[in-house]
Each structure stands twice: as structure tokens, then as C-alpha cells.
Amino acid sequence: MHEGIQSVLADAGTVILGKDRALRLALACLLARGHLLIEDLPGVGKTTLAHLLARLLGLAYQRIQFTSDLLPADILGVAVFERDAGRFRFHPGPIFSQLVLADEINRATPKAQSALLEAMEERQVTVEGETRPLPEPFFVIATQNPIDQVGTFRLPESQLDRFLMRIRLDYPAEDAERALLLGSDRRELIERLPPRLDAEAVCRLQAEAAQVHVGPALAEYLLALLAESRSGHYRQGLSPRAGLALRNAARAWACIDGRDHVLPDDVQAVLPAVAGHRLVPVEPPGTGEDPLAPLLAVAIP
Q1: Residues 6+ apart with CB under 8 A from 102
Q2: Cα–Cα distance, 205 to 186 (Å, whole number)
Q3: Domain 2-201: CATH class, spelled out
Q4: Does the global pTM surpass 0.85?
Q5: Domain ranges of the chain
Q6: Distance (Å, whole) CA 75 – CA 55
Q7: Which DSSP helix (H) or strand (E) runs through 88?
Q8: Residue 150 predicted with pLDDT over 60
Q9: What is the mean pLDDT of the chain?
Q10: How many angstroms separate the CA atoms of 152 and 211, rounded?
Q11: Would you say the C-alpha torsion 40, 45, 51, 55 has a positive or negative sign?
Q12: Rounded to an integer, what is the distance from CA 128 to the centroid of its chain?
């Protein structure tokens, strides 16, 4: 299966050019059974990344375009009364898929955004008083435009915390953009790629990632990071759930490398993506200063 992981990353790198780290973080997020938020300008490949992963991983894929008039029923589904049968029949919404793209999530109202909360946290939805499980694996990739753009609604902290990671794609490097301009259409490239894994293999990899060993010294390093985040540099520190998210993401990063134990380097590799959207500095960082610098400076055991 690890050969399959490397094939997924290699094939993905032929479509999303020059973004190997972002692609690996996205895959680690899935293996850690988390959800991914991609915050960036329109047109840098956010939607393409979601479609690409669904193709390579062999997962059922649905895209939900979030707009200001989107209703929770448009996401979850609705029960319709059938006169002939004399009963209500549930018509599942697009959330009942293995990989769901919540495109431009912050263009919808908070009411529509909150429809995702139970699905992302509990992997189930409750409609008309009945709870229905979601398929496995279940992975939400949400895209978000910068909050200063017209027609956006800021995601509340409770919603942000449901995302294991937040990443950015940013503009491509010059060489990558030149290859993009001279190459084929990205949608055509995706359609030509064969699936490298399937849903069953992804579930097995998720189970394997959950068993990657975290030693006592590594646990102490995680505790030191959590304590530093609560020492006054930020408006509020990382929660215990964030600490578990950091551990799980580091496990998945190690699993991608084919290792059965977590190293401090694994934690540092995923730290910005896991902690960046959960921490707000008390004082705005200076130009070129990393807001996570206090955490990155914590001594490695």
C-alpha cells in the first residue's frame, strides 16, 4: 500500500505543479481521519486538488458550491412525502459521499456552514429526527477565499476547529507556471490518470496510521508545545483536541514515510498546518515574522 501512496503523490505532482508539500499535507490529513481547509485566492488550484485526490484515491466525489442562499437541506438532503407509498422518503444530499468539496465555504451563511458540523465531527447527519451514518472514508475539503473579499462570512472558531489542517497553495513558481501554460488542460490530465488506491485501501491506511507509535519523549515534546501555546503569546492556547490533532497528523506524516514511529521532525512538519488556524497572536507579528515562531523554538527532546 505504501507504493500506492507514493504513486498517488507522484501522479498528483504532475497535475498540481510545484506543490509537493501541500499535496503531502492533504494526504496526511486524510490518513489522520481529519478534514482539510484550503484558504487562498481564486484560481490557484484548490478545486483541482480535491478532484485530483478523489480520482487517484478511487473515492466517490461530490462538490457543493456554497452561496449566500444555500440551505442546510441542500447539503444534508430532505425527506419528501410519497403519496403512493403513504410515507416520507429521504433523498440524501451531496454530503453522503466519500470525498466532499465544500467550495467557497465562507460565501454561505453561518446557518449553512453549521450544517457541516455534525457531519465533520460525528461522521453522521441527523435529518427529520433520524441519524444516518456517512460513508467511510469520509473526507471534507473546504476552500475559503480571503475574508476581505466581497460576500464572505468569517468561519467561527468552532467551525475552524473541525478542520485538522489549513493549508495554502499560493502562486506557483515561475518554472511550474511556465509548464502549466505550455501543458494540457488540468481536467483532461485528471481524467487520464488511473486510480492508485480505493476506498478499502484508504481505510486500511487510516487504521495503520492510527497505530504508529508515539513514544514517551515525543509525548513530552507535544506537551511542551501545548504549554508554550498557552503561555501568553496567543489569545488562547491550543486545546486538548488540537493536541490530539497534532499527534494524529504527525502519525500520518510518519506513515506516508513508511515508518512505525513518530519523530519530532514529523511534528514540526505538520505543526504550521495544524496550529496556524487555531492560534491568534496577542500582538500582530512583524513583517516577515512567523506567528508560530514561539512554538517552533521549543526545544526538541
Answers
A1: 64, 66, 116, 140, 141, 142, 143
A2: 28
A3: alpha beta
A4: yes
A5: 2-201, 211-296
A6: 22
A7: strand 87-92
A8: no
A9: 89
A10: 40
A11: negative
A12: 29
Cell numbers that stand for 209 in this block = 496510521
> Which one-letter amino acid corresponds to residue 159?
Q
Read off the C-alpha cell for 73. Answer: 437541506
* Beta-bridge partner residues of 64: 102
The 3-state secondary structure of 175-205 reads HHHHHHHHCCCHHHHHHHCCCCCCHHHHHHH
Least confident of 25-39, 71-85, 166-180, 194-208: 71-85
Between CA 99 and CA 50 the distance in angstroms is: 8
Q: Which of 95, 45, 99 is nearest to 66 (CA)?
A: 95
**Cβ–Cβ < 8 Å for 166, 37:** yes
Cβ-in-10-Å burial (0-12, 13-18, 19+) of 21 comes to: exposed
Residue whose C-alpha is closest to residue 36's, from 102, 125, 109? 102
Report angle CA 76, 81, 83 to the nearest 5 degrees. Answer: 155
Give the pLDDT confidence score for residue 99 in this predicted structure.
97
Superfamily of domain 211-296 in CATH is Magnesium chelatase subunit I, C-Terminal domain (1.10.8.80)
CA torsion through residues 183, 187, 193, 196, sign: positive
14-56 pLDDT, tens digit each: 999 999 999 999 999 999 999 999 988 878 888 999 999 999 9
**pLDDT class of 1 with cuts at 50, 70, 90:** low
pLDDT at 41: 80
Angle CA 135–101–48, to nearest 5: 125
Q: Which amino acid type is present at position 107?
A: R
Q: What pLDDT does residue 199 have?
A: 95
